[in-house]
Amino acid sequence: MKAQGFLGGKEMIFGIGIDVVDLGRMEKIIHNNPKFYLRILTKNEQDLFLAHSKKRQIEFLAGRFACKEAFSKAYGTGIGPISFQDIEILRHKNGQPYVAKSPFSGKCFVTISHSDTVAIAQIILEN
Fold first, then answer.
1. Interatomic CA distance for residues 4 and 127, integer angstroms
2. Catalytic option among 43, 55, 73, 101
3. Contacts by 27-33 with C-beta closer than 8 Å and gap 24+?
4. What is the mean pLDDT of each run of 10 residues along the chain (127 residues)?
5. Is 114 known to be catalytic?
6. Cβ contacts of residue 11 below 8 Å, gap of 6+?
7. Torsion (CA) 103, 105, 109, 111 in degrees, nearest 10
8. Catalytic one among 10, 31, 68, 114?
9. Which of 32, 49, 63, 122 is most buried, judging by how many CB atoms fall within 10 Å of its CB?
10. pLDDT value for 8
11. Is 31 a known active-site residue?
C-alpha cells in the first residue's frame, strides 16, 4: 500500500500492530513472579522501570509488553521468532516513546496509552 507522504515522498506501510494489556493481570503476574520484568525488558528499559513507583511500574511494564506484542504483530512473526529482548522501547526527553532497537530496518512509529485498567500500544512499521 503506497501513500503520499507528508513531505511528498512515497512511503510504504510494512505492518501495523496493536495490543492491550490488563493492568490487574500484570499486577498479579508481577506479584507472583517479581523477576518477570527481566524477561520482558532490556537493560535500558529495566533502568527506567526500577526508577518508578510500584503503581507506575505496573503501567510501564504493561505498556512495554503491549508495545513488543504489537511490534511482533506488525512485523508478522509474533513473539517466538523474535524475543522481547530484540525490541527496545525508550523515551525521548519529552516522554514520547520510540523504538530504540528492533530487527526491522525501516521506520517504526509507536504510541502507548494507559487508563485505570489497561495499557494499549500501537506500532506502525514503514519502509
1. 13
2. 73
3. 27/58, 30/57, 30/58, 30/61
4. 49 94 98 97 98 96 98 95 97 96 96 97 96
5. yes
6. 2, 3, 5, 107, 126, 127
7. 10
8. 114
9. 63
10. 55
11. no
Per the listing, cell 511528498 goes with: 8
The three-class DSSP label of residue 5 is: coil
C-alpha radius of gyration, the chain, whole number: 15
Q: Do you know the residue count of the chain?
A: 127
Output the nine-digit C-alpha cell for 51: 526508577
Name the maximum alpha-carbon separation found in the chain: 51
pLDDT reported for residue 11: 75
Does residue 118 contact residue 11 with C-beta atoms inside 8 Å?
no
Q: Where are the alpha helices (DSSP H) in 3-121?
A: 23-32, 36-40, 43-50, 54-75
How many alpha carbons lie under 13 Å from residue 33 in its C-beta half-sphere? Answer: 9
